[in-house]
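Need Rab-like protein 3's 3D structure for a figure. Predict it.
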Amino acid sequence: MAALDRVKVLVLGDSGVGKSSLVHLLCHNQVLGNPSWTVGCSVDVRIHDYKEGTPEEKTYYIELWDVGGSVGSATSVKSTRAVFYNLLNGIILVHDLTNKKSSQNLYRWSLEALNRDVAPTGVLVTNGDYDREQFADNQIPLLVIGTKLDQIPETKRNEVLTRTAFLAEDFNAEEINLDCTNPRYLAAGSSNAVKLSRFFDKVIEKRYFLRDGNQVCNFS
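Structure prediction for Rab-like protein 3:
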């Protein structure tokens, strides 16, 4: 059996937002019983059928790189993480729906990964407003995932989800909100599962296909 082609997707966000639980759920369709802090980076693999159910269907490996969530701004910290950002094909930005700061920090995480060789200049956050132009020319597919949906009281849920919808709009990305302790949020055929599949298809297309649909020759 021929080896499957692969793509590399970074999973970024603050410590404690549930990245490891999310990656385990995505790759194994199981709840992670005892999540621990990620030191450095942990890699897991999901098998994905590109354009499933069509004549173009093909199976790929999706490598999910769960990067440790320290938000320290020290140059040494960023330099250590920079090695994980090489040759990335997509980014999943993860935030805790109960923690507004973790949502705001997604801008820092995305800029760090997308501009790993250039330190961002200027103020990224001013009274909750962000410079959306920093993401206007981004060619890397992004997906925003909010975790701990079950911990949002029903009376607050509309307010929180309205706020996070603007967050996804800033990144020109789709969003998924879920509880990583409940696999039904990613059940086959659900809207979340469709969004996830669409995101992985986009990552694969950017990696292996030209705009006209012709396959890119790649020997890496």
